[in-house]
């Protein structure tokens, strides 16, 4: 019973610290945020903060790790290869992906803010590339061919997709998640499969 109370108190403290940092990012540049600012906003003392985190960067890292774990859980296990993508069909994983960003919009809006986006975007890009590789069994499925995809083409495809997705998510969240997740899933999958020129010329 005592252990359960301790776990609940610890979880609440973690959330207070993270919420405080996210609130502060909306108010001032990340570089100007101090541990004192965080502890004051979270209404805890500094010793409590350092019991769980090394510094503000450690808080961001833990926020990122938890967000990526939740993203992975929300997406679930892949059911088919992207080689067989049909943008006209509803794709639950892509809808779930946009749902994930919408449900955690405040977090991502803060983390993609200009004051700390270089670090976060770099981590997010790396994670998305890793996720794409994992879901495609470490091979590119962007080229409909039975031949092996050259490593440089594979890397370019993964990098392009990750950057396009991050840019799309940033714009979408700032547009208050309009259009909805299902429409965004369709639009991104259409771009994903047909490319820039193909999408603009599509009737």
UniProtKB/TrEMBL annotation:
SUPFAM superfamilies: Homeodomain-like (SSF46689). This is Transcriptional regulator, TetR family. One of its GO terms (molecular function) is DNA binding. Keywords: DNA-binding. It comes from the Bacteria. InterPro entries: Homeodomain-like_sf, HTH-type_Tx_Regulator, HTH_TetR, TetR_C_Firmicutes. It comes from Clostridium saccharoperbutylacetonicum N1-4(HMT). Residues 34-53 bind DNA. Pfam families: TetR_C_8, TetR_N. Residues 11-71 form the HTH tetR-type domain.
